[in-house]
C-alpha cells in the first residue's frame, strides 16, 4: 500500500501529487498553515485524504490551545466540496470540546482517523468486489485510489479487492481533465500494482462503451447527499449518462464519512471552482488564447437515478437511497 501521507519526526510528510508520475518527491509540513497550503494547491487531494490531512494539520498545531479554532477555520477554508474535510475537523473539535488534553488526544484521534480510513477502504473493497464480474473491464474516472485515501483506495480499493479475489480485471482510466488525476495518478498506482491499465481521454468513454468494452463503472465521491445524488470529479456525470445509455452499471465507492445527510440533494452541494490556469496552461505551455473565457468547476453532481449502488464499508446501498443511506449511517449493515 502506498504511503500517501504520514508522520515523520513530528512533521507531516506527503507525496507531492502534482509531480507524479514523473517525479516522486515529498512535501514536509511543519505547521497547520503548511498543511492548508498543501490541500489548496493539490499536493494532496481526494476526499478521504484531505480529511486525514486536515486532522493531521490540527494535531500539528494543537500545542497551542488558543489557536485551536483558528487552525480549524484555516483548514476548513481550503476546499469546499469534499465533506470528509469538515467531518474530520468536526471530530477533532469534539475531542477538544470534551476537555481532553489537546496535543496528545488530538494526535491520537488523528491516528485513529488514519487507521480507520485504511480499514474502511479494505471493507469497501470486500463489499464492492462482488459487483465486478470474474472477467471484467472496469472504467473509472479521476483517482479514488491509495493517493486519494489513507492507503488502499475506495473505487480502486474495489478493483484491488477484485484482483486479490482472483478476478481478471482490466481497467480503463479516464485521463480526467484538467488536473489529469486519471492519467497521472490512477495509472501510476495501478501499474505499480501490476493491474492491466489503459488510459483514455475523457471524450473516448462513449465510444468505448458503444463498442461493448466496459462491463462496469466504479468511481469515488466527494460528497453524497441524503437522496443519493453524488458530487465527484467533473466529468463523472457524463460517464454516468453514457453508462445509462449503454446499459453499463454505474457504482460509487465511498466511506460513510463522504455521506452528508444534512444536505437533502445535490443542489445543496457547494461546487469548487478552481483557477482558470489549470485549464489554460499545461506546465509552461499556453493551451487557450488570451481573451477566451474559462469555466473550471472541479466537480459535478450525478443524480441518484443514474447510480446502481453506493458501496460503503458497511455494505452496498441500493435505491431508494434516501432509505438505504440513512439505514447504513444509523449503524445498520
Ligand atoms: C476516494 S477519492 C474520491 C474523490 O475525492 C475523487 O474522485 C475526486 O473527485 C478527487 O478530486 P480532487 O480535485 O482531485 O481532490
UniProtKB/TrEMBL annotation:
Native source organism of the sequence: Geodia barretti (Barrett's horny sponge)
GO biological process, one term: L-methionine salvage from methylthioadenosine
Alphabetized InterPro entries for the sequence: IF-2B-related, IF-M1Pi, IF_2B-like_C, Initiation_fac_2B_a/b/d, M1Pi_N, NagB/RpiA_transferase-like
Annotated protein name in UniProt: Methylthioribose-1-phosphate isomerase
Matches recorded under NCBIfam families: eIF-2B_rel (TIGR00524), PRK05720.1 (NF004326), salvage_mtnA (TIGR00512)
Gene3D superfamilies cross-referenced by the UniProt entry: translation initiation factor eif-2b, domain 1 (1.20.120.420), Translation initiation factor eif-2b, domain 2 (3.40.50.10470)
GO MF terms held by the record: S-methyl-5-thioribose-1-phosphate isomerase activity
Residues at the site labelled Transition state stabilizer: 142
Highest taxon, organism lineage: Eukaryota
Protein's cellular compartments: Cytoplasm; Nucleus
Biological or metabolic pathway of the protein: Amino-acid biosynthesis; L-methionine biosynthesis via salvage pathway; L-methionine from S-methyl-5-thio-alpha-D-ribose 1-phosphate: step 1/6
Amino acid at each position: 500500500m502506498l504511503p500517501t501521507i504520514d508522520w515523520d519526526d513530528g512533521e507531516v510528510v506527503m507525496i507531492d501529487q502534482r509531480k507524479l508520475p514523473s517525479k516522486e518527491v515529498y512535501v514536509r509540513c511543519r505547521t497547520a498553515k503548511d498543511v492548508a497550503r498543501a490541500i489548496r494547491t493539490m499536493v494532496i487531494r481526494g476526499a478521504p485524504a484531505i480529511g486525514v490531512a486536515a486532522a493531521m494539520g490540527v494535531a500539528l498545531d494543537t500545542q497551542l490551545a488558543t489557536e485551536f479554532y483558528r487552525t480549524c477555520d484555516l483548514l476548513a477554508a481550503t476546499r469546499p466540496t469534499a465533506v470528509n474535510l469538515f467531518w474530520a475537523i468536526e471530530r477533532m473539535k469534539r475531542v477538544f470540546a470534551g476537555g481532553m488534553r489537546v496535543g496528545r488526544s488530538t494526535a491520537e484521534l488523528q491516528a485513529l482517523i488514519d487507521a480507520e480510513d485504511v480499514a474502511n477502504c479494505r471493507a469497501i473493497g470486500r463489499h464492492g468486489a462482488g459487483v465486478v464480474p470474474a472477467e471484467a473491464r472496469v472504467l473509472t474516472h479521476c483517482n479514488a485510489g491509495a493517493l486519494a485515501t489513507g492507503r488502499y483506495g475506495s473505487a480502486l480499493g474495489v478493483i484491488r479487492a477484485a484482483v486479490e479475489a482472483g478476478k481478471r480485471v482490466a481497467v480503463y482510466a479516464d485521463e480526467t481533465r484538467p488536473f489529469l488525476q486519471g492519467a497521472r495518478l490512477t495509472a501510476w498506482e495501478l501499474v505499480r500494482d501490476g493491474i492491466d491499465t489503459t488510459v483514455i481521454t475523457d471524450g473516448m468513454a462513449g465510444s468505448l462503451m458503444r463498442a461493448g468494452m466496459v462491463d462496469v463503472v466504479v468511481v469515488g465521491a466527494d460528497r453524497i447527499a441524503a437522496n443519493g445524488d453524488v458530487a465527484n470529479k467533473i466529468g463523472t456525470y457524463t460517464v454516468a449518462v453514457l453508462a445509462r445509455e449503454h446499459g453499463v452499471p454505474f457504482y460509487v465507492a465511498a466511506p460513510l464519512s463522504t455521506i452528508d445527510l444534512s444536505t437533502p440533494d445535490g443542489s445543496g452541494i457547494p461546487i469548487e471552482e478552481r483557477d482558470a490556469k489549470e485549464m489554460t496552461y499545461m506546465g509552461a505551455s499556453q493551451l487557450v488564447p488570451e481573451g477566451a473565457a474559462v469555466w473550471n468547476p472541479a466537480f459535478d453532481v450525478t443524480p441518484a437515478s443514474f447510480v446502481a449502488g453506493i458501496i460503503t464499508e458497511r455494505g452496498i446501498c441500493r435505491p431508494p437511497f434516501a432509505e438505504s443511506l440513512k439505514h447504513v449511517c444509523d449503524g445498520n449493515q
